[in-house]
Amino acid sequence: MRTALPVPKRCLWIALALTIVAAPVQAETIEVTIDKLVFSPASIEAKVGDTIEWVNKDAFAHTATVKGGWEVMIPPKASASLTLKTAEAVDYFCRFHPNMKGRLVVWP
Amino acid sequence: MFTRSTVAVATLLLMGAAPLAQAADKPTDPQIAHIAYTAGVIDVEAAKLAIEKSRNKEVVDFANDMVRDHEAVNVQALDLVKKLKVTPEDNATSQALSKAAADERVKLAKLDGAAFDKAYVDNEVAYHKQVNGALETVLIPSAENAELKSLLETGLKIFQGHQQHAEHVAGMLK
User: Which domain holds residue B154?
Assistant: First the structure.
């Protein structure tokens, strides 16, 4: 409804312009599905600031673990996410089922 | 090849108590469901003993993972047999598995501390190898129903993961 917008149009344009300047590249959410103990896609590329969301379709708990690094717990039939803060190229695996493997390349 | 002969030996061990003629026959779906369920229950029981007896965090964590995963697989197995209206059927392989597990429990119950941890984890490595060998060479190829086959295939991936996890814990205990 028109009456729901008390802010003058000019201010909106300025706000919009500021947002574009502050975030020239919009952060993305990249989805990785886990089904029958497989990370899919197995290999992903992302940028710092992006979020990886693991969607676990299995009835089993999994993790995304980097040896000597971070770990994300992914409960059964649920999702978990991680916002990438550093540029790195890492192999990750599931600590409970180490035969599940994935790779993540994070660009600056 | 070493790997192939190990699997063959494991399969023979699993089928050990069955008369030869019966072992040559492939198990039926109701028997496969019974074997898979029994194998899960055995590992959950062993894990519960470890949770009770062990003071080693790695070992207790591993045992908790076994309880959680094997119970989850067995819930799926029960749901599936209910859906398919299949009654799991006791058989020589299930009985051999249960007998071997009972013997192992008696052995483990007598041990404590580091000796218990080592015996439990070593047995977990051997047990998962044995079950995985049976899944790959007998149970999965014999399963008639597609959904049962698919559940067994997922089970195999889970248990291969457990085997690697157990080998990792065994390596840490040394």
Answer: 27-173
